[in-house]
Amino acid sequence: MNITVLDTCVGCGACAIINPEVFEINGDKAIANYDKISTTEDLCIDAAITCPVNAIEIAD
Ligand code: SF4
Q1: Which domain holds residue 18?
Q2: Cα–Cα distance, 40 to 9 (Å, whole number)
Q3: Which residues of the chain have a pLDDT value below 70?
């Protein structure tokens, strides 16, 4: 699984609450810690579904 946080992120912080191992707010955008994606895939999907602006892209 690979994750991209798009520029449309509004920095709401929801993804970092759902999966703090992967998502972190840096300034006004989320960034992803790629090392932790493989062990938290379900939470990555939850974060992507929850993102209010669909800024989390998931690819296989
Ligand atoms: S949930 Fe979406 S909009 Fe909110 S910080 Fe995460 S990527 Fe950005």
Answers
A1: 2-59
A2: 21
A3: none
Residue from 15, 18, 29, 33 to probe ligand 1 pocket by mutation (most atoms less than 8 Å from CB):
15
* CA-closest residue to ligand 1 atom 1: 51
Task: Name the domain count of the chain.
Answer: 1
CATH number assigned to the domain comprising residue 20: 3.30.70.20
Quote the pLDDT of residue 13. Answer: 98
Q: Give the residues surrounding ligand 1 with Cβ less than 6 Å away.
A: 5, 9-15, 23, 30, 51-53, 55-56
Strand residues in the chain grouped as ranges (E): 2-5, 23-26, 29-32, 56-59
Provide the pLDDT for residue 60. Answer: 87
And the tokens for 21? 């191992």
